[in-house]
Design a protein that fits this description.
The chain has 349 residues and is α/β, with parallel strands linked by helices. It contains 11 helices and 16 strands. The strands form 3 sheets. Strands 2, 3, 4, 5, 10, 14, 15 and 16 form an 8-stranded mixed sheet that branches. Strands 1, 6, 7, 8 and 9 form a 5-stranded antiparallel sheet that branches. A hairpin with a 4-residue loop joins strand 7 and strand 8. Helix 4 packs across helix 5, helix 7 runs parallel beside helix 8 and helix 10 packs antiparallel against helix 11. It is globular. It starts with a helix and ends in a 9-residue tail after the last strand. Bound molecules: S-adenosyl-L-homocysteine. The site of S-adenosyl-L-homocysteine (SAH) has 21 residues, from helix 2 and helix 3.
């Protein structure tokens, strides 16, 4: 039988020592997403587009409105990294088409399993392994929902000896992976404000989220267009590890089931603001998902759906509440809007 990812990590770490959290997260998620459809009731977790068509519809309306105000360029590309089952794209582009916007469609999706599901809904789309091959001669409308949270983070931890990288080691006696402090001093990598932080303080950064955001932002600056990053996270920097694992809708130990559980972190949107600006694009805001959806008219859309199909009124109301209620997804999830090339801001910002 093929080695499990746990066995691969154990062998690697025995041979060459602990691996970084970033390496661990990248390998685990690559295996996890490559082999399954994790979404929905029978899967590991559920996302906003899978809760209700209203989520994608509001995004489609927002994009169509921006496109109209940008002068309706004839050639335009919709780009969605990490598109899951393609549900958001389907709902967004149906609503956009009703308003005249029919873009070419590009997915950035490394998972063969999820590409297959996306292909069932979009025969005409183009797929990319990463953002580097996206078209360069057309304005882009970019949407990523729960995409950044799956990208690998790097963690630094304050020890008695100073700052070290937080790594993943192997406990031979217990037969399990566990977080350990690396042996190399990392003090030079820590901003002055954190130099004397209390022991066990953890600083988390996402070089991968910054890199893909910089790439998209510089394309927007030169090609024109706008982007929405939607994810759970915060608008101010914080300390502490936010690494978590979810399996069958339950939180589990992030080091217990590599490749078998979804590993995510909270997105630090504040770290992306200077990245976007340095690339020559403009940040239009970071607002709570509930506010974003209400400003775009989700309550009116919910009333319309309920009136059109009264037996479904209860489920529409529950979906609306899940998406906008601050105690559910409304507040923890944030929407970051950015744009370039003279494009106007999205209507919700
Ligand atoms: N946006 C969808 C799916 C979210 S799950 C939804 O809201 O339902 C995370 C998605 O990101 C999956 O499609 C996964 O395959 C993709 N993904 C994970 N790592 C990625 C990477 N490095 N580049 C692009 N997509 C990635």
């Amino acid at each position: 039988m093929a080695e499990t990812l746990l066995q691969v990590f154990a062998r690697l770490i025995r041979a060459t020592g602990p691996i970084s959290i970033a390496h661990y997260m990248a390998e685990s998620n690559a295996r996890y997403y490559a082999t399954r459809d994790p979404l929905g009731v029978g899967g590991d977790f559920i996302t906003a587009p899978e809760i209700s068509q209203m989520f994608g519809e509001m995004i489609g309306l927002s994009l169509a409105d921006q496109w109209h105000r940008a002068g309706r360029p004839a050639r335009i590309a919709y780009v969605e990294p990490g598109a899951g089952r393609g549900t958001l794209a389907q709902d967004a582009l149906r609503a956009a088409a009703r308003n005249g916007l029919v873009p070419e469609v590009h997915f950035v999706e490394p998972s063969p399993a999820l590409r297959g599901l996306q292909r069932q809904r979009f025969a005409q789309a183009t797929w990319h392994d990463d953002a580097s091959t996206l078209p360069e001669d057309v304005p882009l409308l970019v949407v990523g929902n729960e995409f950044l949270d799956a990208l690998p983070v790097r963690q630094l931890v304050r020890t008695e000896q100073g700052w070290r990288e937080r790594m993943v080691g192997w406990d031979e006696a217990a037969g399990r992976l566990l977080p350990v402090a690396g042996s190399q001093p990392m003090d030079a990598a820590v901003p002055a404000a954190h130099a004397d932080a209390a022991q066990c303080t953890i600083l988390e950064t996402s070089p991968a989220a910054a890199a893909v955001t910089a790439d998209i932002a510089s394309r927007l600056a030169t090609q024109g267009g706008a982007a929405l990053w939607i994810d759970y996270g915060h608008a101010e920097a914080r300390t502490g590890s936010t690494l978590q694992a979810v399996r069958a809708h339950d939180k589990v130990d992030p080091f217990a089931h590599p490749g078998e559980a979804d590993l995510t972190t909270l997105v630090d949107f504040s770290a992306l603001v200077p990245v976007i600006e340095a690339a020559g694009a403009r940040v239009d805001g970071v607002i709570e998902q509930g506010l974003f959806l209400r400003r775009l008219g989700i309550e009116a859309r919910a009333a319309q759906l309920a009136n059109a199909a009264p037996p479904h009124a209860g489920s529409v109301a529950r979906a609306l509440e899940r998406l906008v209620d601050p105690a559910q997804m409304g507040s923890l999830f944030k929407v970051m809007g950015f744009a370039g090339g003279g494009w106007p801001a999205g209507a919700a910002f």
